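User: Let's play a game. I give you a shape written as tokens, and you guess the letters that built it. Ready? Here's round one.
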């Protein structure tokens, strides 16, 4: 299925996939075992909702669906089309269906721009099946679309394109006759810059390449020329090289040193250079436990919430969630007591014999296990008035080991006295201490 516009159309249009096998990054939907591919092959397509970020193939696959089921592809955007215009299209499709039995496929982009009352015009046409329908949205359908509309549609979630998909698309554009075959060659650094610049959006990638070719003409192009042509400074940052580790080290150490300004700067350096925000989020979660720990117990939940925001919302919206948690960690009281304590425990695991679990800590799930002593001597803490039993949980050779030693920082300052009392009671040294 070729381009609608021919040789003078935008590069993204000229390179639009002509078959499902050319679609990148949506294997769960249209790969060999894809659910949407199966529906298309069986021609069981009715009403669909495509939800995903821009430039991930929603319109392309909508066109391919229409081609596969031999339907006329009618495209409209809820941002530009009135409800009356959409109703007119639907009524025309109904008349053709009644006359010839053939159906149109209405592709309504940005369907979330119609309010819930406006969405109602679709319902009778979808219910009677007079038109095939694809509604495309970048917004969460649960919030943006009426439940009555969702109940009549099958939802397909499009994934953001990963760097490997964009590199494949860029390589295709440089050799395909529909693209820039024979016009330019790009250095690896320039290709990486274009991929990072596109933020997972195939259309943005191809538009950027088209701009570079238009500005610079043909020839071999490097990072400096490409970044200048796009009007964006090429960051001095290599996601796969030494600078990757240097910058994350700088971010971590700024947070550890409570330098919120430095931390925000290094965070911006990473994100603006196209670093995977999920990588940054994972490292921030580590910082929350390694450098703050129980000095501020809310550090870890906030870091995990920021990581969840990255997954759910994506970039650039989630950059502020990362900035918030980086600032919080920088300003929080610091303690590496958990980090050091766990390190001591790991060291003992490595250098001592892995002794059997003491019998009193084993669960006697069968009568035989109880007969041989499993659970013997175990004291259920909730049954004790003190809620703490005189019972070690360590192997005998490590009895008395103390791994966690709280600092005097933040919330940990209040832990020390309680921890000392708990340890003395567990060892049976003093039962009079209130814990």
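Assistant: Ready! My guess for every position:
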């Amino acid at each position: 299925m070729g381009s609608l516009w021919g040789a003078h159309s935008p590069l993204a249009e000229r390179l639009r996939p002509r078959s499902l096998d050319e679609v990148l990054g949506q294997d769960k939907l249209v790969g060999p075992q894809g659910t949407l591919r199966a529906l298309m092959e069986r021609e069981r397509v009715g009403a669909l909702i495509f939800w995903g970020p821009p430039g991930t193939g929603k319109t392309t696959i909508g066109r391919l669906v229409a081609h596969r089921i031999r339907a006329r592809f009618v495209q409209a955007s809820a941002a530009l089309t009135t409800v009356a215009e959409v109703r007119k299209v639907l009524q025309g499709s109904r008349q053709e269906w009644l006359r010839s039995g053939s159906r149109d496929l209405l592709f309504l982009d940005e369907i979330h721009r119609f309010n819930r009352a406006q969405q109602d015009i679709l319902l009778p046409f979808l219910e009677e099946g007079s038109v095939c329908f694809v509604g495309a949205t970048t917004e969460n359908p649960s919030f943006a679309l009426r439940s009555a509309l969702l109940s009549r549609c099958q939802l397909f979630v499009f994934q953001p394109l990963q760097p490997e998909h964009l590199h494949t698309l860029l390589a295709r554009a440089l050799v395909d006759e529909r693209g820039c075959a024979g016009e330019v060659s790009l250095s690896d650094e320039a290709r990486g810059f274009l991929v990072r610049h596109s933020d997972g959006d195939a259309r943005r990638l191809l538009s950027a390449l088209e701009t570079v070719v238009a500005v610079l003409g043909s020839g071999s192009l490097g990072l400096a020329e490409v970044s200048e042509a796009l009007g964006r400074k090429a960051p001095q940052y290599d996601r796969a090289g030494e600078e990757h580790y240097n910058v994350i080290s700088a971010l971590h150490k700024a947070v550890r040193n409570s330098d919120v300004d430095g931390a925000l700067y290094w965070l911006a350096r990473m994100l603006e250079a196209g670093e995977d925000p999920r990588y940054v989020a994972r490292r921030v979660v580590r910082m929350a436990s390694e450098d703050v720990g129980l000095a501020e117990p809310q550090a870890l939940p906030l870091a995990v919430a920021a990581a969840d925001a990255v997954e759910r919302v994506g970039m650039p919206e989630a950059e502020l969630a990362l900035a918030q948690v980086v600032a919080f960690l920088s300003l929080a009281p610091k303690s590496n007591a958990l980090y050091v304590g766990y390190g001591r425990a790991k060291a003992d695991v490595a250098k001592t014999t892995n002794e059997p679990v003491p019998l009193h800590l084993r669960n006697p799930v069968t009568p035989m296990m109880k007969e041989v002593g499993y659970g013997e001597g175990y004291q259920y803490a909730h049954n004790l008035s003190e809620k703490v039993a005189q019972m070690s949980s360590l192997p005998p050779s490590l009895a008395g080991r103390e791994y966690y030693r709280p600092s005097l920082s933040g919330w940990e300052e209040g832990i020390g006295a309680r921890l000392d009392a708990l340890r003395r009671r567990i060892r049976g040294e003093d039962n009079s201490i209130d814990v």
